[in-house]
Design goal:
Layout (H helix, E strand, L loop, with lengths): L1 E7 L19 H20 L1 E2 L1 E6 L12 E2 L7 H10 L3 E5 L6 H9 L4 E2 L3 H7 L2 H10 L7 E2 L11 E5 L9 E3 L2 H13 L4 E5 L4 E10 L2 E13 L10 E3 L1 E6 L8 H16 L5 E10 L3 E8 L9 H5 L3 H8 L5 E2 L6
Parallel strand pairs: 1-3, 1-5, 3-4, 5-6
Antiparallel strand pairs: 2-17, 7-10, 8-9, 8-10, 9-13, 11-12, 11-15, 12-14, 15-16
Length: 337
Amino acid sequence: MTKLFVYEYLTGGGIDPALAAEGSLQDLSALIVEGRAMRDALVKDLLELDGVQVNFATSRFETVDPALTHSRALSGESITAFVARMARESDWVWVIAPECDGLLLRLRDAVGAARWLGCSKEAIRITSSKSATAACLNDHGIPVTPSLEPGQAHEPGQRWVVKPDDGAGGLDTFIFDDFTDACDEYDTRAAAGRNPVLQEWVDGEPMSLSLVCGERGAELVSINRQLIGIPDGVAAGRKERVVEFSGVDIDRFDRHGEQGVVLEALAQRVVSALPGLRGFVGIDLVWHPLRGPVVIEVNPRLTAAYAGLSAKLGRNLSADLLAAHGVSSGQSCGAGS
């Protein structure tokens, strides 16, 4: 029996949900819902596999079916200490956590390489930074939107985005029509130590790619539509528009169609440029009407697209992802191949 521990940060004690109703943390409420959906989908898939004993992290803020095996951090125990303790009691650990503030890297270190189900440390380090990811992919000839510095030469008539360099879920992402206003926002955040990135806004169809990455290559399993909203105008007294991310519409584009063929090739190029991508990986991009696909970021972990994807595709993705890590598992008769 393989003992597997699943840790999702937002539902596993990483944050008090009550804080999500306060001030700038309000958007976290949507992320908590998203985190729970990913965790529950993964746990459901894993429970359908033969030979796998699943334990997952929860917190005192939610009620869990007592028939399911779950664990909580001890009083006063840090999240990294909790995950490290559970890793010692498990054969494998599957972590779902944002890259911001080096969190995913710290949790990877807490688990240790021997039990880690996920991307390599170097792949996480690069993809944790939007600017570093863009620089790496640009060096490999992959279309990206490069990071800019205030005062740098730029094309007129464009729009500009300022966001956290290591952010997730569209949090704290502003669009500006004026480059000077964007530079002012960048400088304000930088002075406060908030690690911003300034880039040209890319118009077009927001998409994401869901990949299963193994040592011998990657499979593009789904091309998704990202649901991103931008206000038509600027609020009174403001210079920016706030980007609103409201989820993902999974498997919306034909992988074998004209766009799908292009995106399959793009996905393989990204994986080649970033050795160490393993398991479930997401690529966010925009299909520009003239330039074609432009990569925005790479997510070295489960993304919101995972929830519902196994049912949509008629296959248990958790089995494929375990196999991508060299972990074999039998499947119950209720799981697809």
